[in-house]
Amino acid sequence: MNPTGTARLLPLCAAALLAGCAAGGPYPSLAPRAAEYDAAEGRPPPPCLPGDVAGVTATPTPAPAPAVNAALGRQVAALLAEARAGQSAFAAALPEASASAAKAGEARSENWVAAQQELSRLAAARTRGADALAGLDALAVAGSDTAASAEDEAALTAAIEEAQRLTADQQAELDRIGALLSPL
Q1: Contact present, 43 and 29 (Cβ < 8 Å)
Q2: What gap in Å lies between CA 137 and CA 163, rounded to an integer?
Q3: Residue 128, domain member (yes or no)
Q4: Is residue 21 part of a domain?
Q5: What phi, psi does 162 have (nearest 5°)?
Q6: Based on the structure, what is the number of domains in the chain?
Q7: What is the DSSP letter of 34?
Q8: How far is Cα 142 from Cα 23, in angstroms, rounded to an integer?
Q9: 154 located within any domain
């Protein structure tokens, strides 16, 4: 071999030898750590993991169930009470609106105008329940990103369903009475 070839080969061999002899030092291992292992797949840990992964199991530990949120419960109860109060106000205004619509007569007559006013009062009474339903829906949307207890979710769902039923029944009555009034 010529001396120039040996001179080129010598630094390469030295670099390879030095890389293989590097001390372990304070550097971490590049082997997978226990936290990097996905135990949810149900596979046993690979044999290359160090001995400190004995606690890794095939099923992850479930998170503790969230506690009941008393503040949320109070908000749900207050909004549901408001929806029910709106139903009471609606029910109180309903007989007068129905009676006025029944005797409304021709469009633009005095009785027709009075019936339109009663229908407007009835619609205004419906807004309490509709606003309460909107508040309940807002709570559901705000809570969709956080964990809630089963009791909180059940109470909110039941309140929303009741408020939806109340406002749907009210809207049906408004539609029925409005149909009794002759158009302009």
Answers
A1: no
A2: 10
A3: yes
A4: no
A5: -65, -45
A6: 1
A7: G
A8: 55
A9: yes
